[in-house]
From TrEMBL, chains A, B:
GO terms for molecular function: DNA-binding transcription factor activity; transcription cis-regulatory region binding. The keyword DNA-binding applies. Gene3D superfamilies: 3.40.50.2300, lambda repressor-like DNA-binding domains. Residues 18-74 form the HTH lacI-type domain. CDD domains: HTH_LacI, PBP1_LacI_sugar_binding-like. It comes from the Bacteria. Keywords: DNA-binding, Transcription, Transcription regulation. This is Transcriptional regulator, LacI family. PROSITE patterns: HTH_LACI_2.
Length: 354, 354
DNA sequence: TTGAAAGCGCTAACAG
DNA sequence: CTGTTAGCGCTTTCAA
């Protein structure tokens, strides 16, 4: 009989945090039915009229499902972990936003952790993410040799890599088309008439560092330019300071370039510091091209010519890929290369010397 | 009798995801006892030797407590919501890191949402955070008139405001000492000999905009300078474009300043654009001071003199304050003003014209 | 000091 | 189509 239920329904008009049972009682049905009605996936299992009543009851009570209870039952947290080196690097915020723009509408949230490039910290943070039951990981800290990634992969943790890749682990990646980007930079400089072009490469422990350096060498060949090994110097980190050190080293070695392809924008900024130190005029004495097109580069002196990376799109693709992985986790790892574009500003010009 | 338990213990050596019961069985105790032993808070309720056995069992099984189950039981999610306008604004990443540096060690995680300055979006995002059972909110999007904040406060949602304040709601805030910062900027310019100093204020809908503008007027008085109302123009947004528009307006109005105190660094960058447009040489013809000291300002042409805000510290204080609020939610709202410092670079100099 | 029992809010068989 | 039942993994009375 439904009398007692009815009675309760009228008494409980405004519960502080209405539960599914409150809704069910208000609608005069069982909690299970209310659950079915409320979930779009299972709504068709219930009489349309009943469903309507449940929806209305939920609405009027201001019912909000408790995702924690749902998670406990379904063993799905609707949460993913995002592992980045450092959020204050302007590279990452647009990627994060791209990820969240896809995840949010799909009902997922991201937990962000910063590793500060410390493998031990990374391991601890990943462990904490996993203990929080994240369903998958998006990782922006990949090194070529990265035991943690191999281990996670073996344990079947769904993940996708962004920006950088790793070796020996078959994991889907979303990266900029680094080789094409470097080729554009070299073509631009060669077109201006530069013949001694140097490369301040990123760290050789990262795929981005290695891929860009290799692409640089290939591009030189294609343009029939000097492939002097002394024109390539690897930076220890992706930072201004490391870029400055590398350029000083390059200049002191007497390699004498007229143009530089920097591994990324920060390394290019390090070049600016050295230009100031040594009274080198850019672009008159030396041209430089960055990589990434981080914000405010147009405000520099001179404005930096660079390769624009669609960071937001990188995030979007990565998040989509992870969601797809959840759908059919057996799918083979597929990777995506995103197209880049050259942004010509004031840091590149024809060489003034011979 | 413990025989069956023992037996099971030896059989189950490596459960994939060991649960509390697995640990309990392995240690030959009840799940409740294992729970008490594992939780430092309740460990003293259990025999030291038993506790040791439980800890060892947990260790050897690689037990990780399931925070979702715990949350369901305790109605605490160990999660907080962080509401910011836009993560790609370089102001916010250091604040986020400060927050996470405090939250992480305390066992909390942050869910970040970006409102893009859209009140409707903000409302929806806050609702989604609340449905995810966040225990509290850190809000960086406060406007002076902000009905949502008043409503949340009435509902007793623990929250703290960062960067900006709101009116008529008694909520704890962590903000830079805007008035002191503006006073430093004006003092610096006055000391250089400027007498016609303009202010490109932030939006009047935000406390930061209003407080800085008022402080500007006060500082002018203190230095006995022109308080010409036409020297103060409010920008519509905290952006380069709005800053540029405001400066054009100021210049066109004939106010004729020799120096500008910009509401923030982005507004100052907008000034740089106008300087280029109108062939105004900075700092020869016009000095400008920014506010915030966002990254890479030293690389601009000229390097921007600005007021440095300890953003990381802002995040740290805000997170601490929220955690304190959880401890004793009846405590009266307390607010913190963080000290700033002037960073003199190349965008300020003595006035060249008389 | 420990165990038994209950239940957080929800979903998923299963039965009717 | 709907109700019953059980249980996700944990904490917390209450008894013993």
């Amino acid at each position: 009989m439904s009398r007692p239920i009815r009675k309760r329904r009228t008494i409980i008009t405004a519960v502080p945090n209405p539960t599914l049972r409150d809704v069910a009682e208000a609608a005069g049905v069982h909690a299970a039915t209310a659950s079915r009605a409320l979930n779009p996936e299972t709504r068709r299992l219930v009489n349309a009229e009943t469903a309507r009543r449940v929806l209305k009851a939920a609405e009027s009570l201001g019912y909000q499902p408790n995702p924690i209870a749902r998670s406990l039952k379904t063993a799905k947290s609707r949460t993913i972990g995002l592992v980045i080196p450092d959020l204050t690097n302007p590279l990452f915020p647009p990627i994060v936003r791209g990820i969240e723009d896809v995840l949010g509408p799909a009902g997922y949230s991201a937990l962000i952790v910063n590793t500060d490039h410390d493998p031990a910290r990374e391991e601890a943070l990943v462990a904490s993410l996993r203990s929080r039951q994240v369903e998958g990981l998006i990782i922006a800290t990949a090194r070529l040799d990265h035991p943690l990634l191999r281990e996670l992969h073996q344990q079947g943790v769904p993940m996708v890599l962004v920006n950088r890749r790793t070796e020996n682990v078959d994991v889907p990646c979303v990266t900029p088309d680094d080789a094409a980007g470097v080729a554009m930079a070299v073509k631009h400089l060669a077109g201006l008439g530069h013949t001694r072009i140097a490369h301040l490469a990123g760290p050789t422990s990262t795929s981005t560092g290695v891929v860009r350096a290799n692409a640089f060498r290939t591009a030189l060949h294609e343009h029939g330019l000097d492939d002097d090994p002394s024109l390539i110097v690897a930076c220890e980190y992706w930072t201004e300071e490391a870029g400055a050190r590398a350029l000083r080293h390059l200049l002191d070695s007497g390699a004498d370039p007229s143009a530089i392809v920097a591994g990324n924008d920060l390394i290019a900024l390090g070049c600016y510091d050295v230009f100031a130190e040594r009274r080198i005029s850019c672009p008159r004495d030396m041209s430089v091209v960055g990589f990434n097109d981080m914000p405010f580069l147009d405000k520099l002196r001179p404005p930096l010519t660079t390769i624009a990376v669609p960071h937001h799109q990188v995030g979007v693709e990565a998040a989509r890929m992870l969601l797809e992985l959840f759908e059919e986790s057996a799918r083979p790892a597929r990777s995506v290369l995103l197209p880049l574009s050259l942004v010509v500003r004031g840091s590149t010009a024809r060489p003034s010397r011979r």
